[in-house]
Amino acid sequence: xxxxxxxxxxxxxxxxxxxxxxxxxxxxxxxxxxxxxxxxxxxxxxxxxxxxxxxxxxxxxxxxxxxxxxxxxxxxxxxxxxxxxxxxxxxxxxxxxxxxxxxxxxxxxxxxxxxxxxxxxxxxxxxxxxxxxxxxxxxxxxxxxxxxxxxxxxxxxxxxxxxxxxxxxxxxxxx
Length: 175
Fold this sequence. Notes:
By secondary structure, the chain is an alpha+beta fold. It has helices at residues 29-41, 141-152, 154-172; strands at 10-13, 17-18, 21-22, 25-28, 46-49, 65-70, 79-85, 88-98, 101-105, 113-116, 120-128, 135-137. The strands form 3 sheets. Strands 5, 6, 7, 8, 9, 10, 11 and 12 form an 8-stranded antiparallel beta sheet that branches. Strands 1-4 form a two-stranded antiparallel sheet. Strands 2-3 form a two-stranded antiparallel sheet.
């Protein structure tokens, strides 16, 4: 997968309401994410529209949103917002923690990213999928079952993802 698809390139962020209507604006990551991190460090939760294809097949570009809070005790299996380079952020799953070294992988990726524990900026509480207003919580049975199954399918995941992209999406659309 291309590197630009492995990270979050832009987000829609809803910081204000006007007359009970939420306004969405689009900003580059380098400007937006540091401000989002500040909000989470102050104790706020933040909802970001997901960009990129690295968390396929269940999270889709510009369709789904992640509800996040400050990361306090990240564990293997958690989806997190991490800074993997200077102002370069990804929202991926932790697949390994060895001391201070954290290995991340997007569910739709084969490759990995490396960062330090201090670079984990946000923890995902849940996802709003397919335009729904109901949160799929990461501590819920549905997410835990999906996560266990998908992470254990890693050896054959590349073939499943290829079939999903080449056959499933053209015939049935995204999951």
